[in-house]
Sequence to fold (130 residues):
Amino acid sequence: MNKRKVFIVEDEDESFKILKKLLVSSGFEVDGVRESKGVMEKIKFFKPDIILMDLLMPGLGGFEMCQMLNDDKDTQGIPIIVMSALGGGEELKRAFALGAVDYFTKPYDFREVEKKINKFIEYKKTSSEE
Fold:
């Protein structure tokens, strides 16, 4: 069985390392970036089952990346869960309008994050088999 693949887009080094370590220890194959440069090529190469996207990134932000992912035929079906310290409001409405399927706020409960990831990977798998 193939490992479930998660791609992390997170500019904060410590957050990236912690999230990656938790996901790997839970059996996921994980890759990611800490900057937006080359993100589309890396995602296309890795072919993740799901993307965890920080909204507040230097340079190309999470909103713009969501738009690019959903505009590209190679990446438009990949579920995106946004991560934000903002906690809601207009930012989340905008992220959902750009194709995000869910969100979590920082700091987060990893068990909840893992449940969301598994839910959307399973949903994507069953909907693509139909």
Notes: The mean pLDDT is 88. Strands lie at 5-9, 29-33, 50-54, 80-84, 100-105.
